[in-house]
Design brief:
Length: 135
């Protein structure tokens, strides 16, 4: 399995960050997806801008502390963990993805792909907070 972790800090209470990240009905702040289809309370599908679908199953959801899910698409399967910590009057987030690719050749590129996806997600989150005048 390949894994990648990203950490970011925001000057706001974890509830603000938590609410944005876990609200699958309001995903317009994400630049990398075209839609999210909610299946039920614990399952949802994300569609990339080119229509590629990834299936998610929420495995842990402790408000403002921990968010976990498994994910799978035709190229990979794995899990994602989000940890929310209070620090310096704000919130530190630690996001880790662990994936197993289904095509061995993709192992050469997956680490870079994960880092790019994580950086895009954090940049989108910062932009969402700025647009809401939270930063």
């Amino acid at each position: 399995m390949k894994h990648s972790t990203i950490t970011a800090q925001f000057p706001y209470d974890s509830k603000i960050i938590w609410d944005i990240i876990t609200d699958n009905k309001n995903y317009a702040w994400r630049s990398d997806i075209s839609k999210i289809k909610i299946i039920d309370e614990n399952h949802f599908d994300e569609y990339s801008n080119n229509g590629f679908v990834t299936h998610f199953c929420i495995t842990a959801k402790e408000p403002c502390c921990e968010y976990r899910f498994t994910m799978e698409n035709k190229n990979m399967s794995g899990c994602w963990t989000g940890i929310f910590e209070s620090c310096d009057g704000g919130t530190r987030i630690i996001f880790t993805e662990e994936v197993q690719v289904k095509n061995p050749i993709m192992n050469l590129f997956v680490k870079g792909y994960l880092k790019k996806q994580q950086n895009t997600y954090i940049a989108d989150l910062r932009r969402a907070l700025e647009l809401n005048k939270l930063i």
